[in-house]
Amino acid sequence: MVIREAFTVRASVERVWAFLEDVPRLATYVPGVEAVEETGPDRYRGRLAVRIGPISARFEGVVRIIRREPPARLEAEMEGQDGASASWVKASFLGTLEPAAGGTRLACEIDLTLRGRLAQFGSAILEATARRMIHAFAQRLQEALESPHAP
Amino acid sequence: MRPEVLHPATLSDALAALAAYGEEARPLAGGTALVLLLHHRLIAPRVLVCLEEVRELRGLQFAEEGIQIGAMVRLQELARSPQIRERLPALALACQEVGNIRIRNQATLGGNLAEADYASDPPIALMALEAILEVHGPNGPREIPIAEFFRGPYTTALEPGELITAVRIPLPPPGSRMTYLKFRTRSAEDRPCVGVAAVVAFEDGICRELRIAVGAACETPQRRPEVERLAVGRPLTEAVIQAIAQGYADQIETLNDLRGSAAYRKRMIEVHVRRALEEVRDGHRSFGADAGC
Is A23 exposed, middle or buried (0-12, 13-18, 19+ CB in 10 A)? Predict the structure, then answer.
């Protein structure tokens, strides 16, 4: 399933890029991320908690940045597993930045695959959950970069 | 590990058990949804609080101003009840459309709401009927209008430890007719691809009030009051019906899943809102007291 979302942040492309590249800090803005650590150049390990109604899943997995073209384009791959629900998630991420009126337009394209027991909820729920997370992330990112105390 | 099953006989005992075990306890109503999750090992609660014997959750009460349905009332009972069929036919029709007879005999109205599956029939009818949920929890009782209850797929306004105890439905205005249409794309027992509930109050052929709820095509059941208002003060002509059907199709953000793509669902919303309005206008299938005028 491919999910495309785009939003505008009132900050320069360079600042948004610097933010996007700093994965451990970026991760703190993703709802549900519990821990991220660097395991090598462009390689990270982390844990993501997701709640869908009565079910809580906790995916443990890895993130790899596979391509970067500063300050315009970033590609990454993610893979994770939740032991309790016997489910696997795999995602590729493509983020593109371009100057837009009043700031930077950040477009994300996420190709997401879920296998295992959680997948029985169906693609609609997966998509709705993913979009909700992206919107929450976008809002946090906007708040962080647009505040006068922004890093 | 098998969960321990508790059988409280009163609401206060049930609430106390839920409070005592917190996240490790789940309330068990009809079990048609919960037991599947247990079997698939998607949840592993330590305790199940069975609500079967809780007397406060039972029974139907009929009064002048409305109908009160205990949270443990089975969907089949609602589908068959002569009073529900007469006074709230949209609810009876929606309950009758759920799954199959074995599911309807077991599934409860409270459980159905608490599960908040986006593809479910009764919540759509209850949305058009402006139902009010009575909820009890650690901080006492409160009421939640159904329009504020669903927060997303499988997500509700219930706080930890809270239980739906009853669903209250104000009687619709006099001269009302209503219906529920379920559109399936796969098997006869499938959940809806689109569900539409319509409640229309007529006075001398003029529409005084119109309520339409659409669900299963979107994350939660939805109404569009600004579109509903297009009918008020007018007879339900083809042009008015078409404008409302189109308005709903345009304004609802639809989901994409095995039961239908987002674009297909938009088209099916248009078709089924139109059919539901034609049905209430023409009076057939609505087995309400005022049907067939």
Answer: middle
For A66, list phi and psi in degrees, rounded to 5: -105, -15
Containing H/E element for A33?
strand A33-40
Interchain CB contacts (distance < 8 Å): A and B:
50
Question: ω into residue B173 within 30 of 0, thus cis?
Answer: no
R_g (Cα) of chain B, nearest Å: 19
User: CB contact, 8 Å: A10 with chain B?
Assistant: no
Give pLDDT < 50 ranges for chain B.
Answer: 286, 288-293
Are B2 and B35 in contact, with CB atoms under 8 Å apart?
no
For B82, the 3-state DSSP assignment is: helix
- 8 Å CB contact between B140 and B162: no
Residues of B in contact with A55 (CB under 8 A): 37, 42-43, 154
Mutate to test the interface with B, among A3, A85, A135 (most CBs of B within 10 A): A85
Quick one: closest CA in A to B255, which residue?
A124
The residue of chain B with its CA nearest to that of A85 is B42
Question: Which tens digits make up the pLDDT trace of B80-135?
Answer: 999 999 999 999 999 999 999 999 999 999 999 999 999 999 999 999 999 999 99
* Residue B92 near residue B75 (C-beta atoms within 8 A): no
Joined together, the tokens standing for residue B62 give 């009929």
Maximum distance among all alpha carbons in chain B? Answer: 63
Give the closest residue to A6 by CA, choosing from A145, A150, A138, A141: A138
| Contact assignment for B115 to A53 by CB distance below 8 Å | yes
Work out the minimum CA distance from B1 to partner chain A, whole angstroms.
Answer: 13
A118 vs B: CB within 8 A: yes
Which residue has tokens 């592993």?
B44
Q: CA B278, CA B272: separation in Å to the nearest integer? A: 10
pLDDT in tens, A5-53: 999 999 999 999 998 888 888 899 999 999 899 999 999 999 999 888 7
Contacts of B97 (CB under 8 A, 6+ apart): B121, B180, B182, B192
- Predicted ipTM > 0.95: no
